[in-house]
Each structure stands twice: as C-alpha cells, then as structure tokens.
Amino acid sequence: MIQNAPELSYIPFYLLIPNILEAKALCYEYYTYPYTLVGLGEIVIPGLSLSYSLIMDLNSKRFLPLYFILNLIGIVLGFGINVFLLTYVKMNQPALIYACSILIFINFLTSYLDTNFSKFVNGIFD
Q: Looking at the 3D structure of the chain, how many domains does it have?
C-alpha cells in the first residue's frame, strides 16, 4: 500500500483553469496564483442532479423538460452568486455551497408543486 501511494497523488481531484482575465487580481492584494481551482465535486454533483432531473422528465412524459431546465437555471444561478461574491464582496467560497442548496430547493419545490414529491424522493418511477 505504501509503495503505491505516490501513484495516488496523480489522480485529479480538481481542475486547474488558467486565469484569462486579470479581474481576479482585484480580489486579493497579494494574488500571484495564475490558476483557478474547480473541484471535482463542483462538476459531478450538479451533473448528477441534472441527470436525475432528466430521468424525472423522461418518466413524466411531458413535452417540456421542466426539471432539467430548472436545474440548469439553478446551476447557473449558483455559480453566478459565487462569481458575484468573489468579484464584488471579495469573499471566496466554494461554488458547491450555493449551487447545491439552490438545486435542492428547486428540486423539492418543483416536485412538491408537480405532486411528484414521493416519486422524486424515493426514486420510484412508473
């Protein structure tokens, strides 16, 4: 196990995205890091929510994929709140905090208003 430990350090748990704009330098006085970290959870968790919402839409057999569209709007809104806080309030938080809370609220509210709350929570489809 100890011999294989150096190989485990190469597993990507985050993505390094180069900063294109210099606007991030305004957030911190001593900003020298040229990359932005995007965690794997900030990609996987919203992706799982999108796939589950698409399953809900396909099983409801409606013309408009309501859950999928609302989840997409929730993800954009969550990441938008994070960018706003980073840029104007100068408070760095993981985007997963805002995106997941908005997604949970949107999914529960939509399923409750659509009278599919028990199907949504239990994962039982027709």
A: 1
